């Protein structure tokens, strides 16, 4: 969707001057920083292909720096892979990277109908992993549609996603081949198959503590008996290199397989 098409979708709901003056939605902590247009960074995976090139900063969730917006947006990328609703990206990006129109002072919020459609489609998926629909996405805070806002896609605009890809299309299409996986596995010092009990962050690294009853260690050379009883895996710079891993890992109902180097207390995942 290019900028002209986006503006066309918004134009039908353009408010009268009296309504525009009364339009005062607030979603997050107030910011004293003057808003400005910034390029949507290529590193913002959540909003790849969103249809416009400039975003408003501070955004509609109160993130004042691009670094903060990127870190927070990354946590929601896993929800896109679940394909719970066709407008999930549009809704999330309207908050994390709201479109910036240079001659407009007021931000463009998502319509309430867009929020409700995504909420109804994604709440069951999030609940399955122990996450409620967050208060910062409370749909009652958004305009009903008689003001300028980002509407849901019409039937002709919505991307039709194949049912068989609903689990994780990104993982299937971009993952390494079996040959590459085996080569990587064989070149590492060990591999740890585990369900994750807890995570901790230390200086940007992630400390991964597996469930003892559900872990299997392959290639055990370099591990003492004590370390085998309580293995710990370190993901170097994991908090910045894999920000999506932090909020989801302990909730994901599956085992993880991590090859790595070193051993025992110096075990590092890859």
Automatic annotation (TrEMBL):
<keyword id="KW-1015">Disulfide bond</keyword>
<dbReference type="GO" id="GO:0060070">
    <property type="term" value="P:canonical Wnt signaling pathway"/>
</dbReference>
<feature type="signal peptide">
    <location>
        <begin position="1"/>
        <end position="20"/>
    </location>
</feature>
<dbReference type="GO" id="GO:0005615">
    <property type="term" value="C:extracellular space"/>
</dbReference>
<feature type="disulfide bond">
    <location>
        <begin position="115"/>
        <end position="139"/>
    </location>
</feature>
<keyword id="KW-0221">Differentiation</keyword>
<keyword id="KW-0964">Secreted</keyword>
<dbReference type="Pfam" id="PF01392">
    <property type="entry name" value="Fz"/>
</dbReference>
<feature type="disulfide bond">
    <location>
        <begin position="47"/>
        <end position="93"/>
    </location>
</feature>
<dbReference type="InterPro" id="IPR036790">
    <property type="entry name" value="Frizzled_dom_sf"/>
</dbReference>
<dbReference type="InterPro" id="IPR020067">
    <property type="entry name" value="Frizzled_dom"/>
</dbReference>
<keyword id="KW-0879">Wnt signaling pathway</keyword>
<dbReference type="GO" id="GO:0035567">
    <property type="term" value="P:non-canonical Wnt signaling pathway"/>
</dbReference>
<comment type="similarity">
    <text>Belongs to the secreted frizzled-related protein (sFRP) family.</text>
</comment>
<dbReference type="InterPro" id="IPR015526">
    <property type="entry name" value="Frizzled/SFRP"/>
</dbReference>
<feature type="disulfide bond">
    <location>
        <begin position="84"/>
        <end position="122"/>
    </location>
</feature>
<protein>
    <recommendedName>
        <fullName>FZ domain-containing protein</fullName>
    </recommendedName>
</protein>
<dbReference type="GO" id="GO:0017147">
    <property type="term" value="F:Wnt-protein binding"/>
</dbReference>
<keyword id="KW-0732">Signal</keyword>
<dbReference type="GO" id="GO:0030154">
    <property type="term" value="P:cell differentiation"/>
</dbReference>
<keyword id="KW-0217">Developmental protein</keyword>
<feature type="domain" description="FZ">
    <location>
        <begin position="32"/>
        <end position="152"/>
    </location>
</feature>
């Amino acid at each position: 969707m290019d900028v002209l098409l986006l503006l066309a979708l918004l134009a039908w709901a353009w408010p009268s001057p009296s309504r525009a003056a009364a339009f005062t939605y607030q979603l997050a902590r107030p910011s004293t920083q003057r808003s400005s247009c910034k390029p949507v960074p290529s590193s913002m995976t959540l909003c790849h292909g969103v249809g416009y090139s400039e975003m408003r900063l501070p955004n509609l969730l109160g993130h004042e720096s691009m670094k903060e917006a990127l870190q927070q947006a990354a946590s929601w990328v896993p929800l896109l892979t679940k394909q719970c609703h066709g407008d999930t990206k549009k809704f999330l990006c309207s908050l994390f990277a709201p479109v910036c129109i240079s001659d407009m002072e007021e931000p463009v919020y998502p319509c309430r109908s867009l929020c409700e459609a995504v909420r109804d489609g994604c709440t069951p998926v999030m609940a399955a992993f122990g996450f409620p629909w967050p208060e910062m996405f409370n749909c009652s805070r958004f305009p009903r549609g008689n003001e300028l806002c980002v509407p849901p896609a019409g039937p002709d605009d919505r991307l039709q996603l194949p049912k068989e890809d609903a689990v994780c299309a990104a993982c299937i299409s971009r993952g390494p081949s079996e040959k590459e996986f085996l080569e990587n596995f064989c070149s590492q010092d060990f591999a740890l198959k585990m369900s994750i009990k807890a995570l901790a962050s230390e200086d940007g690294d992630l400390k991964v503590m597996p469930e003892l009853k559900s872990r299997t260690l392959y290639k055990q050379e370099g591990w003492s008996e004590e370390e085998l009883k309580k293995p710990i895996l370190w993901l170097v710079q994991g908090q910045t290199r894999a920000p999506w891993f932090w909020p989801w890992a302990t909730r994901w109902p599956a085992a993880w397989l991590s090859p790595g180097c070193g051993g025992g207390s110096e075990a590092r995942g890859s």
